[in-house]
Every structure is written in structure tokens, then in C-alpha cells.
Please model this.
Amino acid sequence: RLSMPDDATGAPGTQVSLPVSVDPATGLDSFDFAVRFNPHVLQPVDVTKTALAAPLSLTYNVGISGEVWV
Model:
């Protein structure tokens, strides 16, 4: 199950971090996902890894309007 908070807020012009969780992740070797949003409200800046995911590879694309692909 892939999840992220649905109650994140921020003032205009500020950055907001949205953690993405996978549970259970036992036996998971790789996965892809997309996050879709209103590009008139949000602008993606970056995708980063947590300490737990540090040894894993991460590829992402924030260049598509209204979508982030990971």
C-alpha cells in the first residue's frame, strides 16, 4: 500500500514536504508511481530519499506539468 498525507498545507510561496510511505514493503525490489496535482496550485521542486531509502536508486521526473513520476 502506497500512501501520503492528505492534509498537508502551506502558505503561498512556501515549500511543503510530502512523505510517501509503502507498507508493507517486505520483499519489495522496486516500484514506480505517479503523483498528480493541479499545476496552478503546486509546483514540484525535488524528490528526496529518507535515510532508510539511502542505499536504493531513485529516478524521478518533475518536468511534466501536473505530475511527478518516481
User: Anything to note?
Assistant: The mean pLDDT is 91.
